Amino acid sequence: MPESMRYISHHNLEGFGKDGQKKLSNSSILIIGVGGLGSATSLYLTVSGIRKLTLVDFDSVDESNLSRQILFQKQDIGMNKAIVAKEKLKAFNEDILIDAIQKRLDEDELRELIKDSDLIIDATDNLESRLMINQITYEQRKPLCIGAAIRYEGHLITILNKDKDESCLNCLYTLGDESLLDCDGIGVLSPVVGIMGSMMAMECIKTISGLNTGQKNIVSVFDFKNNIYNKINLEKRVNCDVCS
Ligand SMILES: [Zn+2]
């Protein structure tokens, strides 16, 4: 297929077009966590024509991941997730630059990677990492997309970090809180992870291409068992030590 045909459905899309595609092809996205959410997000960003993806995960593929982490297969068990994901994604679109980082990053390393990225995807599974990512993206004024999948539910937050009146993840949670965003051991139905990962890719593409009209200070909560969608206001906390 000639290169010009690959993105024809984007080129022909009213309100997106070649300009939108060009913005994608100039952007560098950092995906922290290549589990279920990160698999789906990175796959859609790869086929959509992002210039560069940086994948970060210290974990290796386990048999229990195979029901929902769609980039991984039985033969990948025991291998690092970021490394396997890079190889799989390359097969979908060889034009995309992909860096795979197979270690747990300290704060300075994370700071450097965020500095070099246009948008950060938080696909981690623990509140400590999420709050650190939130703080650094706030300081560096980088757009942040946060997703979570648990039981039959998905949660989605996009923080553009453009305006001073925006709230942040630290307004909602402080360390030690029982988080809406963690799913360890509680269980999740497989497609919930794929849907939320796809929605994170959608938020990323909207933000990079300028389509995101900035629905600020909202946590979108999706109940897929009953097909109910709710919005929770993410109020700015007066004494938030990140954004206030
Ligand atoms: Zn805050």
Description:
The structure is a single chain. The chain is an alpha/beta fold. The chain has a single domain (3-233), classed as NAD(P)-binding Rossmann-like Domain (Rossmann fold), CATH 3.40.50. Helix content is 36%, strand content 18%. It has helices at residues 3-6, 8-11, 17-25, 36-48, 81-92, 107-115, 127-140, 169-172, 190-209, and strands at 28-32, 52-56, 97-101, 119-122, 144-150, 153-159, 218-223, 228-233. It has an 8-stranded mixed beta sheet, sandwiched between helices. The model has no long low-confidence stretch (mean pLDDT 93). It binds zinc ion. The site of zinc ion has 8 residues, from helix 8.
The largest pleated sheet is described as:
8 strands, mixed
Strand order of the largest sheet: 3-2-1-4-5-6-7-8
CATH architect. name: 3-Layer(aba) Sandwich
Tell me the quaternary state: single chain
> Based on helices, strands and strand pairing, what is the structural class?
alpha/beta
Q: Look at the structure and give the CATH class.
A: Alpha Beta
Q: Layout of helices and strands, plus pairs?
A:
Elements: H1 3-6, H2 8-11, H3 17-25, E1 28-32, H4 36-48, E2 52-56, H5 81-92, E3 97-101, H6 107-115, E4 119-122, H7 127-140, E5 144-150, E6 153-159, H8 169-172, H9 190-209, E7 218-223, E8 228-233
Parallel strand pairs: 1-2, 1-4, 2-3, 4-5
Antiparallel strand pairs: 5-6, 6-7, 7-8
Helix pairs in contact: 4-5, 4-9, 6-7
Zinc ion binds at residues 167-168, 170-171, 237, 240, 242-243.
